[in-house]
Amino acid sequence: MTIGIALSPFALDATGNAVDAAVSLSASAAAAGVSSLWFGQTFTHDAIALAGIVGRAVPELAVGTSAVPITARHPLLISGQAQTAQAATGGRFVLGLGLGAKSFAEPAFGGSFDRPITRLREFLTALRTVVHTGTVDFHGETLTAAAPLPAAVAGAHPPVPILVAAMGPQALRVTGELADGALPFLVGPEALAEHIVAPLTAAAERAGRPAPRITVLVPGVVTADLDAARAAAAAQTAFYDDIPSYARMIELSGASRAAELVVIGDEELIAARVAEYFAAGATEVVFSQTDLTTPEDQRRTWAVLGELQRSRVGRPCTQRPGAALL
């Protein structure tokens, strides 16, 4: 059971050089003691490339993407990027994928967002094949992936783990059958156990696959300025209130809007919430939105997360049966 941090792509892009900023912040995260660093994908820097660069520069950290939308992307191209990052990091890269949001995908890329679950199934089928075998010859309803040349990257081992930011029942079923785990975001601990871990594990068991990894992203910050943090949280998370899969999970978590699931308070509150997520079946807890307030608050947040990680090293696993360790 490990603890990580997700860096905001918007914060990186607001600097003089997003790559330099990512490497610098990653070194600080490693010094704080966390185990992993995760990068989101927008329309600016490439998250897979950035994870590979950071993972090579800061060997203490595992790195991953959370998450690269599959919209307007192809399994062969994603495979080449992901395998390159895996080789660059010596096997410490995790590929996190997402379906994307219709409100962004259709106006940005054109075309239709129809049949997202079929697309996800076919994308994962083709991607897993090429990542594990170095070739693929897949012809589906929404995509074709047929490699005319070898598609394996030398040094990319073990095969890149694939996680999916799945939230809805159909996406969770496909993820359990074809991916290595899930990347849920904006879900409370009880809802995580009942509506993510349970159906995902059941789908993996039916498919004869290993117990899935559950890397839950939790927005939160250690701060004394509760009002400022809550206002920032409301502004940063309002987008998710109108996405059906997130709105459903927010409601199942007992909240009326995403901002209510942001963990804001002192070190004891953060530690208690981390423990609740592990008890609910998470194999990794990754804190996002740690820059909601001030750099000092962010440093305090990373410090408590690093201390929690160090306290878990060597501790016997006490989480639910069927949940895999990283």
UniProtKB/TrEMBL annotation:
Q: Which Pfam families match?
A: Bac_luciferase
Q: What class of enzyme is it?
A: oxidoreductase
Task: Tell me which Gene3D superfamilies the record gives.
Answer: Luciferase-like domain
Q: Which UniProt keywords are given for this protein, alphabetically ordered?
A: Oxidoreductase
So which domain of life are we looking at?
Bacteria
Domain Luciferase-like intervals: 11-283
EC number(s): the record gives 1.-.-.-
The molecular function terms in GO held by this entry are: oxidoreductase activity
InterPro entries named among the record's database cross-references: F420-G6PD/mer, Lucif-like_OxRdtase_MSMEG_4879, Luciferase-like_dom, Luciferase-like_sf
Q: What is this protein called?
A: TIGR03564 family F420-dependent LLM class oxidoreductase
